[in-house]
Amino acid sequence: MKKSLKSLPDETGYFGKYGGQFVPSELKLLLDEVAKAYEVAKADPNFWSEYYYLLKNYAGRPSPLYYAKNLSQKLKGAKIYLKREDLNHTGSHKINHTIGEALLAKRMGKTKLMAETGAGQHGVALATAAALVGLECEIHMGEVDVVRQHSNVVRMQLLGAKVVTVKTGSRCLKDAVDDVLGTFIKNPEGIFLGTGSTVGPHPFPMIVRDFQKIIGEEVRMQILEQERRIPDYLVACVGGGSNAIGLFNEFLDDAQVKMIAVEAGGKNSEPGNHAATLSLGKPGKIHGMFTYLLQDKNGDPLPVESIAAGLDYPGVGPIFSNLKDEGRIICESINDEEALGAFQVLAKTEGIIPAIESSHAVAHAIKIAPKLGPEQIVVVNISGRGDKDIDFIADRLGLSQDNNAN
Ligand SMILES: *Cc1c(COP(=O)(O)O)cnc(C)c1O
Question: 94, 155, 333: which to mutate for ligand 1, most atoms within 8 A of CB?
Answer without folding.
Answer: 94
